[in-house]
């Protein structure tokens, strides 16, 4: 029973800083209006950042608001060299039907992944054995396959997709400026960063003026 789980045996998924194993997943492609497949290996070969957005289920409510927000920013993700893939345990056929019927998804152009065997969801630690659904997990993978960011929300809390885009931009900046750090309110290249060192200790406020 779900309330009798031994939490010592529960897999917590990949951890930030680890390499992500190559994976393939079936998708519904809203642009081509057809089914296909996408793989991490192919995205890495193209030098792309990979953004995985797990969600509970098609034809649900908070998910529709997240999809709409993500659709409005998808071109910005693409300009950053990132591919966004939404993932649930629904079939690719259900993805097609939801995209067709839900007006909130009219602007969706990103691939919608179908993780029917839950392998990818389990790998990232978002699969909920009790419900058979995915929690709201967001993960950013670098072009070399390293997991750099992970966020998991419960079912009833929608995510801020602007913050997800900010994290992608910050990771791209830091990949080119490894000696720097992006503070909490950093939004885009040109904003002030921090350069950790002895001179900065106790002087963060002054450095950001």
TrEMBL record:
Signal peptide: none annotated. GO terms for molecular function: peroxidase activity. Residues 14-173 form the Thioredoxin domain. Keywords: Antioxidant, Oxidoreductase, Peroxidase, Redox-active center. Gene3D superfamilies: Glutaredoxin (3.40.30.10). The keyword Iron does not apply. The keyword Transmembrane helix does not apply. It catalyses: a hydroperoxide + NADH + H(+) = an alcohol + NAD(+) + H2O. It is an enzyme of class 1 (oxidoreductase). Homodimer; disulfide-linked, upon oxidation. 5 homodimers assemble to form a ring-like decamer. PANTHER family: ALKYL HYDROPEROXIDE REDUCTASE C (PTHR10681:SF121), THIOREDOXIN PEROXIDASE (PTHR10681). This is Alkyl hydroperoxide reductase C. It comes from Candidatus Magnetominusculus xianensis.
